[in-house]
Amino acid sequence: MPHAPLIRLENVTLSRGGRVVLDDISLDITERRVGLIGTNGSGKSSLVRLLNGLLSAEKGRVTVHGLDAKEQAGDLPRKVGFIFQNPDHQIIFPTVAEEIAFSLEQAGLPRREAAREAVPALARFQRVHWAERPVHALSEGEKQFLCIIAVLVMTPSVLILDEPFSSLDLPTRRRLETLVAGLEQQVILVAHELDAFARYERVIWLHEGQVRGDGPPAAIIPAYRAFAEGLT
Amino acid sequence: MISLYLAQRTWLHGVPAGWKLLALALLSLIAAPLDSLPVMAGLLAAVLLLYASLGKAALAQIALLRPLWPLFAILLAFHWWNGDVAAGLVVLARILAMVLLANAVTMTTRMDAMMDAVEPLLAPLAWFGGSPRAVALAVAMMIRFVPLLFALWEALNESWRARTGKRGGWRLLAPFCIQTLRLSHHTAEALAARGGAPRGTRR
Questions:
Q1: Alpha-helical runs (H) found in chain A
Q2: Which domains occur in chain A, in start order?
Q3: pTM for this one?
Q4: Residues of A with CB under 8 A from a CB of B
C-alpha cells in the first residue's frame, strides 16, 4: 500500500443549515476498526460524509489515505466506500447484477466488461444465485448485504458504514457484523448498537460537534452509556 | 409488491431485447389502423395466451391494469353515447393488447439489455451535448423506484388509516410528494458516494 491507512482531520469546522455541526475537530485515525458514537445530531454523519467527499469542510483540511478530500474529491468514491442507513436509498438498479455492474463501471471497467464481471463478483460472496433477482424481492438484510457487495467490488481501502444496522433483526445484524469483521479494509462504523464495537480498536465519541471521548471501547462506551442514562 | 421485472426466467427472457422491441413496434404499427372487432379480439386473446405461456407470475401482472379501468369505462361510455359500442370495444381491445405487450417486454428484459438496444437511437442526443448514458440511467432508476414508490404510498396510507380508520386517498398526495423528494435526495447522495452519474458513452 503506497500510503499508511491514515485518515487525518486538521482543525475541521463545518456548518449545515446555519448550525455548526463540527467544531474545530482534529483527529488522526490509523486503526483498522474504528467506531463513531454520539447522540443524534452530534455530528457523526457529517464527519463521515467529509471522508467520502459528500460534504466539504469550510475550515481545516481532511486527508484520506493520501487524498486531499477537497482537491481530489472526485477520486474519493473509489477509495472510500459508503454504506447508508437505508439500503432502499442506495440501490439504483432494478436487478442485482445491474447494481453490481454499475459499481464495476464506476471503478473504471468498460461497460460490457462490467456487465460480464458482475456474476464472478457475486460468486466471490457466494451470491451468484442473486444475479437475476429484482432488488425489491430481497429482504432488508439481503439488500444491505447487496449494498456492501456493490461497494466492495470497487475495492475501496476504507469502508464507512453509517448506521447500517438500524432496520435489521439481531441475527441479520450479527451476520453482517461478522462479514465486516473479516474485511481487509479500514472500517469506520457509526452505530447506536454499542455492543457492535466490542472488538473494535478505537471508539470516538462526538458530542455537539466536538470529540468528547476517544480511546478503546472498554473505556469510552461505559462513559458514553453513563452520560446517555444521565440524559433520561 | 408490484414490480416491473419478472424474477423467474421465462422463454421470453431469452429473446434479445432488440427483437422484442422491434416486434412490439411492428405490432403497434399494424394494429393501429385495424378496426375489425374479431381481429382485435383475436390479438388480445393471443396476448393473453402469451402471458399464460410465461406462467402464473406473468398472469398476476395483468392486475397492473386495474388503474386503467376508469379510463376504459369512460372510453366505452363515450362510444356508447355515440351509438357505436363495437368501435369502443375495438379501441379497448387495442389498448389492452398494446399495454400488455409492452409490459411483457418490460417484465422479461433486463434494463441494461433494453438500454443497449435503445441507446443507438439516443445517440443523436450527444450532438446537442446530451448523454445517452444519463437517459439510460434515468430509465433504469425509474423502473427500480416504481415498486418503492408504491410501497411508500402504502406506508403513508397505513399511517393515515392507523389514526383515522379511513383511506387517505388524495390527502396523501402532498406528504407523498415530500417523501418522494426526500427519497430522491437520499438516492442522489448515495449515487454521489459511488462516484456520481456516469458520463460519456464508454462501452
A1: 44-51, 76-79, 87-90, 96-106, 111-123, 140-152, 170-181, 217-231
A2: 7-94+134-231 (3.40.50.300)
A3: 0.77
A4: 52-54, 74, 77-78, 82, 84, 86, 88-95, 97-98, 101-103, 105-106, 110-112, 115, 132-137, 150-151, 154
